[in-house]
């Protein structure tokens, strides 16, 4: 997704030497945008889910809300790192048959 976005924005200006820089920057900006948006949405989701539980005391409610916000923000901030560390290399394929995305091998992107 970041490759096609970078190529559409910088199509006439991209050279082969700077294509990797543009692609990496575009991917990082998309990732940052997703983190910011989800960081804004997750407290509303945590509040809604906690209200569905019908806690007896305010302390139970606050503890549950704090746990949900913490877990959702942990997932939000570290999901991309876990993806790169544990999953990205698994989808490349074998040397005889590489998986391609938009006509490119994943390690080329």
Automatic annotation (TrEMBL):
<keyword id="KW-0812">Transmembrane</keyword>
<dbReference type="Pfam" id="PF04547">
    <property type="entry name" value="Anoctamin"/>
</dbReference>
<dbReference type="GO" id="GO:0005886">
    <property type="term" value="C:plasma membrane"/>
</dbReference>
<protein>
    <recommendedName>
        <fullName>Anoctamin</fullName>
    </recommendedName>
</protein>
<feature type="transmembrane region" description="Helical">
    <location>
        <begin position="65"/>
        <end position="86"/>
    </location>
</feature>
<feature type="transmembrane region" description="Helical">
    <location>
        <begin position="20"/>
        <end position="45"/>
    </location>
</feature>
<dbReference type="InterPro" id="IPR049452">
    <property type="entry name" value="Anoctamin_TM"/>
</dbReference>
<feature type="domain" description="Anoctamin transmembrane">
    <location>
        <begin position="10"/>
        <end position="108"/>
    </location>
</feature>
<keyword id="KW-0472">Membrane</keyword>
<keyword id="KW-1133">Transmembrane helix</keyword>
<comment type="similarity">
    <text>Belongs to the anoctamin family.</text>
</comment>
<dbReference type="InterPro" id="IPR007632">
    <property type="entry name" value="Anoctamin"/>
</dbReference>
<dbReference type="GO" id="GO:0005254">
    <property type="term" value="F:chloride channel activity"/>
</dbReference>
